[in-house]
Amino acid sequence: MASSSATPRSIALEHFPTLANSVSQLPVRQGEDPWTTEEVLEIAEALIEDDLRLRQELEAADADLTEFLRNSGEGSGDDQADYGSSALEREQELTLVNNTRDVLEQNRRALTRIEAGTFGTCESCGNAIGKARQQAFPRATLCVSCKQREERR
User: Fold this and answer.
1) 128: helix, strand or coil
2) Which among 85, 41, 94 has a CA at the least distance from the CA of 65?
């Protein structure tokens, strides 16, 4: 995303140079104060920090998985219990890698929504998601009602 000397704040400011112009357009629920540039920058900064951390975790997990797969053929005298244990470890590593990739994609999507001025808009009904929900979970793309409806399916 950026050089290692850059801070998440500087990355956010660099990535969203016209943020101040579009913040006033971000939707809020009735009774909520409008978004401020500082609030949106804080969210973008947290997403960028999370993105940088997750990329490092993903690199380490990928390296661990590669090493695990490289060594999985060794030890031809291993019994079935060892093979079962190895398969379970491999599945856990794969799950970790896939979950990390999913969260990275959600972060990128949230940052794209901030940049596009659609952050805070429910992707299902088009209403405001709500500032409190977005501040607690910036990767949210659905309002509470639509999320509940989706989970009932």
Assistant:
1) strand
2) 94
Domain assignment present for residue 148? The answer is: no
Domain that holds residue 90: 8-119
- 9-18, 82-91, 121-130: least confident range: 9-18
Residue with tokens 């901030």: 114
Residue 1 confidence (pLDDT) above 50? no
3 state DSSP class of 121: strand
With respect to residue 140, please indicate whether it lies within any of the assigned structural domains: no
Q: How many domains does the chain have?
A: 1
Measured distance CA(126)–CA(142) in Å, rounded: 9
Q: pTM for the full model? A: 0.78
